[in-house]
Specification:
442 residues; alpha+beta; Rossmann fold; D-amino Acid Aminotransferase, Chain A, domain 1; four-stranded parallel sheet; N5-carboxyaminoimidazole ribonucleotide synthase; ATP-binding; ATP binding
Length: 442
C-alpha cells in the first residue's frame, strides 16, 4: 500500500488553507473548528459563504494566502492547476505540510477523456466513448456509437452545462455549432482548448454515487451508496442509503478504492455511477465521473453518518485517523435552489435539519440544503411531502411527493419499497433499513 505523506514535516498544523470559499469550503471550516483548526480561503468573492469562518484572500494575494496556512486543500475541482502546482512545490520544499488532494487527481478530474481512459485502464466499466475534434469526427462517432449520444466538452461545464443530446442526424450540426468553440478554446465553454467527448447513450435505472475518504497512510473508509435525482441537470435530492443496492456496494467500493490508490489520493472523493444491466441482464454499475473533493451527494452525512464527509476530509488533510463512515439513520437530502423557504415551516417538520449557505437568491443557485431524518423511517416519505409543500422551488419533487398523504403514508412507503426491490432477490426497503447498515469495509 502506498502512502501520500511524502512532504517533510517541519511544523505543527494550526491553519488549513482552502482553495475556494463556497458552501463546501464553509462546511469544511465548520468541521475543522471542533478539531482545533482554523481555515483561510483563496476566493475572489469577499462575501463568499466561507467568509463567516475565516479570512478570505483574493487570488492576487496568493503569497499572503500561502503564508497564512500550514497545509492546503480545495473545495472545487476546476481550481487552476498552476495554483495547485505552486502549493505542491512549496510543500515539497518543507515550509508547508502538503497539498491534498494531489495534482494528478485534479488534472484527471478536469478532463473527461482522461477520466474515462483512467477508468478503463483500471478495469472499471464506463459507457462507450470517442474523442471528437471536428464535425466529421462527430458524424463518425454517431455512426460508431449509435444514436442517441451525449456530446460534452471534455473540460469545463458542470450542473448540466456544456452538453448536448444528439437524438437524430439532424441534431449533429446543431450540436457541433453549440459546442465547437471548446475545441479551439474560444467562448465561455472552457478556458483551455480541448476536444469534445461523445458518449454512448445507455438505459440506466438509477444514478448513484459513493463517497470515500483516504488517509495519508493509505487507509480508506467508504460511505454507503446513495441515490441521486437531478432537476435540469442540478442535483435535487439524495437518498442515503440507496434502497436495494446492497449487492452493488462491493463493486462500488472496489472501484473507488482502485481509483484512490492509483492516484495516491488523500481526502474525500466522490464517484458518480449509473445503475444498468450488463449483456447477460445482470444489474451492474458504470462509472461516470469522479469529484476530487467533498460532494453535494454527501451532505446528508453531517447528521446521517457517524463521521461526516467534511470531518473525514479535514482528518485526512491534517493526518488524523479517519472516522467511522457508518450511516446512523436513513436520510434524504434536498437542495434548496434559487429562493429560501420559510425556515420555521421547514423546522416544524420532525427530523428536518436546515443548512443555509448565506447566499443571495438567484435562479437555480444552490443556496441551502435540508436533510430529513425522522425518528421513524416509515415517516420519511410523509416528511418529504411536507417539505416539498413548503419549498418555493420544488425542483420537480412535487411530481413524486405531491399526492402523498402527510398524515398516514405507510401504504405509500410500502408501495415505493415494492418498486425498489433489490434485483438480486435481496429485498431492501425503507422500513427494513436499520440505523446502522451493513457495508463493505476497506
Amino acid at each position: 500500500m502506498t502512502t501520500a505523506n511524502a512532504y517533510p514535516v517541519t511544523q505543527t498544523i494550526r491553519t488549513i488553507g482552502i482553495l475556494g470559499g463556497g458552501q463546501l469550503g464553509m462546511m469544511l471550516a465548520e468541521a475543522a473548528m471542533p478539531l482545533g483548526y482554523q481555515c483561510v480561503f483563496l476566493e475572489d468573492n469577499p462575501e463568499c459563504p466561507a467568509s463567516l469562518y475565516g479570512h478570505v484572500f483574493h487570488s492576487d494575494q496568493l503569497a499572503d494566502f500561502i503564508a497564512a496556512a500550514d497545509v492546503f486543500t480545495l473545495e472545487f475541482e476546476n481550481t487552476p492547476t498552476s495554483t495547485v502546482e505552486q502549493l505542491t512545490s512549496v510543500s515539497k520544499s518543507g515550509s508547508k505540510q502538503g497539498m491534498f488532494p494531489p495534482l494528478i487527481a485534479l488534472d484527471i478530474a478536469q478532463d473527461r477523456l482522461k477520466e474515462k481512459q483512467m477508468f478503463n485502464a483500471l478495469d472499471i466499466a464506463t459507457v462507450p466513448f470517442m474523442e471528437v475534434n471536428s464535425e466529421a469526427e462527430l458524424k463518425q462517432a454517431c455512426e460508431a456509437l449509435g444514436l442517441p449520444i451525449v456530446l460534452k466538452t471534455s473540460r469545463g461545464g458542470y450542473d448540466g452545462k456544456g452538453q448536448f443530446v444528439i437524438k437524430q442526424e439532424s441534431d449533429i450540426k446543431t450540436a457541433w455549432l453549440a459546442l465547437k468553440d471548446a475545441v479551439s478554446g474560444k467562448g465561455s465553454l472552457t478556458p483551455t482548448p480541448a476536444p469534445l467527448i461523445a458518449e454512448g447513450f445507455i438505459n440506466f435505472n438509477r444514478e448513484v454515487s459513493i463517497i470515500a475518504a483516504r488517509a495519508q497512510n493509505g487507509q480508506i473508509r467508504c460511505y454507503d451508496l446513495v441515490e441521486n435525482h437531478h432537476h435540469h441537470g442540478i442535483l435535487a435530492k439524495t437518498q442515503a442509503p440507496a434502497v436495494g443496492t446492497s449487492h452493488l456496494l462491493q463493486q462500488a467500493t472496489d472501484a473507488i478504492t482502485k481509483i484512490m490508490n492509483h492516484l495516491d489520493y488523500v481526502g474525500v472523493m466522490a464517484l458518480e455511477l449509473f445503475v444498468t444491466k450488463d449483456a447477460r441482464g445482470h444489474t451492474t454499475i458504470l462509472a461516470n465521473e469522479i469529484a476530487p473533493r467533498v460532494h453535494n451527494s454527501g451532505h446528508w452525512s453531517i447528521e446521517g453518518a457517524v463521521t461526516s464527509q467534511f470531518e473525514n476530509h479535514i482528518r485526512a488533510v491534517v493526518n488524523l485517523p479517519l472516522g467511522d463512515t457508518d450511516n446512523v439513520h436513513p436520510a434524504i437530502m434536498v437542495n434548496v435552489l434559487g429562493q429560501y423557504p420559510d425556515i420555521s415551516a421547514v423546522l416544524n417538520i420532525d427530523g428536518a435539519h436546515y443548512h443555509s449557505y448565506h447566499k443571495a437568491e438567484r435562479d437555480d443557485r444552490k443556496i441551502a440544503h435540508i436533510t430529513l431524518m425522522p425518528n421513524d423511517v416509515t415517516d420519511l416519505e410523509s416528511a418529504m411531502a411536507k417539505l416539498v409543500a413548503v419549498l418555493p422551488n420544488k425542483v420537480g419533487l412535487d411530481k413524486e411527493y405531491g399526492n402523498i398523504d402527510t398524515h398516514s403514508n405507510t401504504a405509500d412507503a410500502k408501495a415505493k419499497n415494492d418498486v425498489l426491490e433489490d434485483n438480486s432477490g435481496e429485498a431492501d426497503s425503507l422500513a427494513e433499513l436499520s440505523p446502522k447498515t451493513e457495508k463493505a469495509k476497506k
